[in-house]
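Posting this for the archive.
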Amino acid sequence: MEYIKAEVLKNSKGIKAWIFPLAFILLGFVLVFFNLENFIKFEFNWILGLMVLPIILHFDKSKTANYQLLLFVLILLGFSWVLHIRTLHISAFFLFLFFQMSLIWGRINILPLFLLLFLSPIFTYFVEVFGFPIRLVLSEWAVDLFNLIGLKAVAKGNIISLNGNDFSVDQSCIGLNMVTTSFVLQLGIIGYFEGKCNKKLQLLWILVILSLTSIFILINNLLRINVLVLFQSDPQSLSHQLFGLTGLLLYVVLPGFFFTKWIYSRFGKAPEAGHKQGNKKSEFAKNLMLSIGILLILLVFNFRQDEVFPDEGIIKTFRLQENLEVPEGFKGEILANGVAKMENAKALVYIKPPSKFFRSDHNPMFCWKGSGYTFKKEQTKVIAGKEVFFAELEKGKDILYTVWWHENATHQTISQFDWRWRTLKGEEGFILVNITCAKESDLEAAIGKF
């Protein structure tokens, strides 16, 4: 009987230690539930991430909780308040979630933080926007490979002509799913060896592995483009998917597996044994107060509006004045979010306000996709004396032709790096001009007026 009482008391103490962290985890989910829809996507990579999480998530019970995570929580919340970026607020919540988990099970490793990064909207935006010029470069490299082996091929933007047949290197050839999947799988490989070898890598070596994974991804996509063009494999075909999965396995997963194994054998170190110190009651009280304080801050930030409108001063600069200068033959207005909309019978024009160098730029690749259109035949062109990005927009049988570029009063560019770097140096902000026509032949006349 005494033994049973002792066991009950021992277990009750363990349960008591879990009550507050679990309660805060649950309450935190309730607080931000309605703001997670733009962060968590119930799609393949999120499902894969949840499957990989148990493999990469490791705890060290001999060490104290990750209190440094609270500092990063406050930093992210500070930036989210100043910059009005909801993603930072949600990221802060997940860091708080990881901190609560470390209170229960011990110090958490760094791999889940990388998983959070690769599944975040910030990474999505980076891959979507910067993946566009990368596809154009890969198309040129693929043509060079064809010519090297004696096959005559020509690249026009992301369209490769081989033996008189055109093939479009669409987003599926170096798209978000492939890139994100590759990184998530690589995290799973790192987590596997961390658990199997009971060794840890310094952050530097994890970054080396992920950097090499980026190279593997580029090589995979380059070779994949060559194979898809050679066999004229359409994106909707089974062969397209099989080539993609085979390339992922041969050129990303297997090299990543063996390289990670070698890194762990050479540079992996057994974790140092730690020991928790301090009075348990005072430790519990401290953790309780910290958790309540951070949770209250998260609650306050949860009700901050995330919709960002440009500053009034920015809207009034460079052709976005209150008295909007509309070219002859166009009618125009400034929308509530500061975007200038102009149109006539042949063209629809959006002039989007300058963005700060660290912010998104209302990129047409997102805006038109949100309207149900898919991008085809992307390439760079010079039309009416301007270098522009060009693409066909398809929505069922509806086909439109769109171009876009960035410019300020002295410089015009299509490079994301260029306009962001110039803005960072203090140059005048760059607007984004997006012109769309039902006929490709109407683009030149419309561009000439802007």
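The longest strand covers residues 374-383. Residues 312-448 form one domain.
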